[in-house]
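Data availability (excerpt). All sequences and predicted token strings are deposited with the supplementary files. A representative entry, Sodium:solute symporter, is shown inline so that the format can be inspected without opening the archive.
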Amino acid sequence: MRTDLFIFLLVGAVAIFYLLVMASGRSGSGRDFYTSSASPSPLACGMASAADWLCAATFLGLFGLFSVNPLDSQLILTGWLAGLVLMGLWVAPAQFHSGHLCLSGYLGAGYNSRLVRHLALLIVVLISTLLLALQLRGMSLIFSRHLQLSSQAGIMISMLLLLFYVVLGSMKAMTQVQMLQYCVLFCALMVPSIYLAAEFDERFGVLFSSSFYSGSGFDFQVSLDNLRQQLGFTPHASSRDTMDIVLLLVSLMAGVAVLPHLLLRYQSVKKTADISYSTVWMLVFLGLIYSSMPLIASMGELRLIKAVNGESNEGTAYSRMPDWFYGWEQNKRLAWYDHTQDGKVQYAAGQPFEGLVPLYSGETGLSGEPLMLNPAAGVYEPLLQRFPSELYVAEELHLFLIPEVSAMPVWVIGILSVGIVAAILSSASILMVSAAHSAANQLLSRRLTQQAELKLARFVAVIMLLLAGVLALLLPGSLIELMNWIIALAAAALFTPTLLLIFMPGLHPYAVFAGMLTGFSSYLAYTLWFELSWALPGLAALPLSLSPEAFGACALVLNLGVTLLLAVFFKSTASHVRQ
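Structure token line:
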């Protein structure tokens, strides 16, 4: 418990330091709460934007996906970065010229329609609340693990910490803190990476090398590929077909380009040219993180496989597993089911249980492990792997496991935890600010004083935080999967009206409203049906085999088609009336 207490105290001390910096820049007006009146430099804005982007899913989730499926990770990262470029080139400058701080206000004013404004507001608040729920889930991992609490208690502690951010926060203070948080995050990732590089006799500079993508250069990468093939994994193959990949890239690119909390950051710059420079700096800072991630993930995955399966690659007795295994098992982010009935923990390809998450009966097995209610059949192909999949490791757990599996010093674990908290706090704070402005300023605060508007915005942020806490407990699936679904929702509903407002202004607002509603409802219907078809065997399967995140591009096209078709209809109707 001394180790856990040290880590918790270190995380708490850094969080208090962040809060003090936030308090030093407290806002005195509503606009100071939403934007930084000091007009930060492009470098500062770019670093803060990078910190805004690096959240539980885009940092923890992507790292975990790099550990188990490098090719899919590269595809997702390509779509994300393309969307950030699109945002900096087109969307953010257009919104900046309009003078509106939030996307819903920009769309409502551009189409001169309260219907469009209110529907866009609903979608913006929904997206921000869902993203905030992911941050609460990511932060709860640290608190529940090191305080030995349940996930529910970890989420409550995370909500309490974010509540102080709402009370003390403003965009000016957040810009200062988020620059600091990016530096902390970068150092937190590099410290365990240096330990790993030394363990594999590699230079520090090799972490940023591109030879990982060319498949040459490192003996340990070859060793990892051979080891994973023995366990049934396919290291250099994607689980998606070509159509799904193309639509996924379009969906992610379009959705990231209209994420409302990232657009709000650009409204603090002095002139339009600063948006382009800020985007370049943001990509530079993100490149420093993401270029090192594949290699670090590979080294960590090799250590994890050897720690679980042993040097002989046959498994390790459950009773002889290290303390970190039991700690994360109690946290329910790691689960084991003994399919072979030999008392050994064996890590291989496949899923050890049925459904999205492991369910427990409350009883213990022969080795003292928690018994699952939904174990898989344990079927495997002996020609492809040595044993069935018995171990479940949540994707967001892989980065946390690196220092513990490698037996690094306690202070390294503490620094990594601090960096992860920094990334999540940065994203969560800007999410609450953007949603608070969208709701308070657009709907209720037109006749209020600046101080009253500020209080109302903070009240809206608190309500949003409570809703996000409930969603964090209910949402199934991994962080990166949920993140991509949310991005696809933004693409389905918001990208088409934003793009048309830039290149085809003057469309009839009813056509735009109908298109947004079509994209929004079709995407939600497909995603719900996709999930329920797995959970309910009697439900008819979908005619399309696309993943929900890829279907976002199809919903985008539906949105565009309905909008343009109705725009022609309303235009012809108006011409007929004039005649």
